[in-house]
Amino acid sequence: MLDRRACGVLLHPTSLPGSGGIGTMGEDAIRFVDFLSSMGMSYWQVLPLTPPACGNSPYSAFSAFAGNPLLIDLNQLVADGHLSEINDCDSLDDNKVDFEAVTECKMKMLRLAGANFLKSETSVYKQEFWDFCNNTAWLHNYSLFMALKKHYKGKSWDKWPLDFALLTPENYETASVKFGLEIGIQKYIQWQFQRQWKKLRRYAAENGIAIIGDIPIFVGYDSADVWSHRELFLLNQDGKPTFVAGVPPDYFSKTGQLWGNPLYNWEIMSSQNFVWWVERFRAMLELYDIIRVDHFRGFEASWNVAATEKTAINGSWVKAPGALLFDTLLEALGEIPVIAEDLGMITPEVIALRDRYCFPGMKIEQFAFDSDALNPYLPHNHEKRSIVYSGTHDNDTTVGWYNSLNESQRVRVGEYLGTGEEGIVDGILRTVLMSVADTAIIPLQDLIGLGSEARMNVPGMAFGNWSWRFRWDMIPAYMPSNIYAQIECYGRNNRF
């Protein structure tokens, strides 16, 4: 699928326009697919669709399998007869996501819809719902986890009473009965997410648009995955992490980055034939056409830091199963269309693992101008089997990035692109489209030419990210035909 010249747009669904305070899988998502199609695009890349936890980050989720309830379109629940009205959410801010307000209002509406559905004896969707429940292996653990989290007022699972924090089979049954109604509501919410997303993905496919999704290599500690599968992670007998993930000191940080995610017990996972990973990739392939694997290098070796450390300085590289894991995945699932996020401290061993499976890596234009002509991110050094981006969700917008450069850096960028200062964004986008790389992905912010106010995420900043949304009036009327002409010019109009 990634072996043809094509182009796509990076936009997380929370950034879509519309009422209700957050983008959804409703009418504006359909309109966005039409917009992509009108430009000759082939891909829509999204961030993880999992339920965000700490800092509202899609990369820190309550589950590696579940869907984000905030993306559910309430209007479709009204059409299904599960809600009578949604006026309470219509007054929320349309310009950026206020996660606290959106979560309070939307979860209230979703719980009401779930309760209405569960008590209804005549719904035509009941069999579909029960089939989903019976055929979704991770669903009950997740729903019980969220029911307990609600009961304990959002506390992390390690702060719950031991009977529920360190769950035994007996307590599992007791809790499943005690919190039955909330568990049912959580299952309803996940069912609605799945059916709405599949409907949207089907519409995208009918219009020649493939979905690129995202798997973060690590999972959050306060998640259903760690809580219900403690044996798969490096935890002590009290359920506390013994080692956590991060990256060592580098050019960007003298103390490295201490992410805090629990690390996998690869020995146990291997003894189980990596069944947890097989099921995770299987679930993601039901959502996406292509999977971008975040922090791919962690499958070759990860930076392990003792949980007692305050920074990532005193860590060590610990080997991961690498080829053994991917051989198992391929044997179980067949061909897996993967993009390897190979940014940062990449070793020959990581490159060998990536190339063993012909996974394309990533090239970021904003990284291209901080050294000499041998910089691998410069367009004349790109490889055909790669994905070129102007920037990612972790970068500033191209306008913001250029404005942050000093004068000599700006001169270098201008000389390479052959443009004046006013044409920098167009120049960057043109080099992305001209690149020999088979696939080009452009964040919507760069297509529109927005500044730092539209940045999605600042790495290392725990709060205040992920809230940007666009409006349809930001899109110039001439833009679809203009972009279509460029995509045609550079041979990237190869639809699915």
Comma- or semicolon-separated keywords:
19 helices, eight-stranded parallel β-sheet, about 500 residues, 12 strands, TIM Barrel
In brief:
By secondary structure, the chain is α/β, with parallel strands linked by helices. The chain has helices at 27-38, 74-79, 87-90, 99-119, 126-134, 139-151, 162-165, 169-178, 180-206, 224-228, 266-271, 275-285, 323-333, 348-356, 398-404, 407-417, 424-434, 444-448, 479-489; strands at 6-10, 43-45, 210-216, 243-247, 257-262, 290-294, 301-306, 315-319, 338-340, 361-364, 386-389, 439-443. Helix 4 crosses helix 9, helix 6 (139-151) packs across helix 9 (180-206) and helix 12 crosses helix 13.
- Structural class by sheet pairing and helices: alpha/beta
Radius of gyration: 23 Å
For this structure, the CATH topology is TIM Barrel
What is the number of E strands?
A: 12
How many strands, what sense, and barrel or not for the largest sheet?
8 strands, parallel
CATH class: Alpha Beta
Secondary structure: helix percent: 25-40%
The CATH superfamily is identified as: Glycosidases
Number of domains: 1
Identify the CATH architecture.
Answer: Alpha-Beta Barrel
Look at the structure and give the mean pLDDT: 95
Gap between N and C termini: 9 Å
* Fraction of residues in β-strands: 5-15%
